[in-house]
Design a protein that fits this description.
- The chain is α+β, with helices and mostly antiparallel strands.
- The protein has one domain: Hotdog Thioesterase (Thiol Ester Dehydrase, Chain A).
- Helix content is 25%, strand content 33%.
């Protein structure tokens, strides 16, 4: 089991990118027919957990959610696409950028709904934090997210 605790080879963000799709049903909405924010954050947490666990190759748990920004309301019948991607891996944690967009079925119009940064911690078999593989950003956008993740992390100290 010791080998599991050693840092693994760096991975690219694309290797664990997760895209999840949901439909807004009436039980997901408020009385105005708009998607409830809590339901959307729950979906985003699920997508980011899948992303984090895929990256780490281990169970990972939510440590924090940072800078949740609701952009536009989604309505009953809209199709929600949630994209989660690791921006940076630290020793035992990973920052995941998650954004959700909505698509109107009839018109095909797509618009942003929400974005947030989730931090996950990988756990070993005894539920203790354990090391995660590093991230090797490839695109200019990934490199910017990578650099800014450190700024966000230092801003919490």
């Amino acid at each position: 089991m010791e080998k599991l605790n050693k840092k693994r080879k760096d991975k690219t963000p694309a290797m664990s990118e997760t895209i999840m799709t949901e439909v807004v049903y009436p039980n997901d909405a408020n009385p105005m027919g708009m998607l409830q924010g809590g339901r959307l954050v729950q979906w985003m947490d699920t997508a980011s957990a899948i992303c984090a666990q895929t990256h780490a190759g281990r169970i990972a748990v939510t440590a924090s959610i940072n800078k949740v920004e609701f952009k536009s309301p989604a309505k009953v019948g809209d199709i929600i696409s949630i994209n989660a991607k690791v921006t940076r891996a630290f020793d035992r944690s990973m920052e995941i950028y998650v954004h959700a967009s909505s698509r109107k079925v009839i018109s095909g119009e797509i618009y942003p709904v929400c974005e947030a940064y989730f931090v996950f911690v990988a756990l070993d078999d005894n539920a203790n934090p354990t090391t995660v593989p590093g991230i090797k950003p490839e695109t200019a956008t990934e490199k910017t997210f990578y650099k800014n993740a450190l700024v966000r992390r230092k801003g919490k100290d």
